[in-house]
Amino acid sequence: MKQNNGIKVIGLTGGIGSGKSEAAEILAGTYGALLLNMDRIAHELMTEGGVSYRLIVEYFGRDILNDDKNIDRGKLGKEVYQNAEKLKILNSFTHPYVLDYVRNRIKEVKEKNSYPFICVETALPREAALKDFCDEIWYVSTNKQVREERLKNSRNFNRTKFEQVLINQLSEEEYEAASTHILTNNGTLEGLKAQVEKLLNGENRK
Length: 206
Fold this sequence. Notes:
Helix 1 (20-29) crosses helix 9, helix 2 crosses helix 5 and helix 3 (51-60) runs antiparallel to helix 5 (84-112). The chain contains nine helices and five strands, in the order E-H-E-H-H-H-H-E-E-H-H-H-E-H. It has helices at 20-29, 38-45, 51-60, 73-80, 84-112, 144-155, 159-167, 172-177, 189-200, and strands at 8-13, 34-37, 117-121, 136-141, 181-184. Strands 2-3-1-4-5 form a five-stranded parallel β-sheet. The radius of gyration is 18 Å and the shape is globular. It is of the alpha/beta class. The relative contact order is 0.21. The longest helix has 29 residues, at 84-112. Its EC number is 2.7.1.24. Belongs to the CoaE family. Catalyzes the phosphorylation of the 3'-hydroxyl group of dephosphocoenzyme A to form coenzyme A.
């Protein structure tokens, strides 16, 4: 695990519906952390003018664009669905540039000492190489049934769609192996806030 001098860098991970974004918002909103959401950064790099946008359009063609010339993520998803080689190529157009952005932003913040600490949020701790630049990696662990119910209510997921998403995510054991600390989020937001506070105070260690 990378030991950074000065400002602590916390990696935050978890599967879909786990509540990792809620934990990230607690760290940012309550404790003033700089939040770097790797999925959002990837989206920004995929907008017109971004480096990932150029590479993706050059490879997949302009048929994946919608009427306003933005990448249609539905069309792009169909291109890589059940095609491991194309998915690997797509990831090569995004992951390295997201990592470069995150590392540069961390360096900038540490030089200016402008935040109390940094939170890097991602569902892919290994692909994101969190261990290379984070002091700690927090895993938000949530029961499968709770996650399914949350996604049913928030995104109108049915059982089939939920199971399809899980296929491409890490198992509970893999997430735990990639983390240094665990937040259990099967209850209320207040309960999650209490666990975040304890971890920041050095309690509830894995």
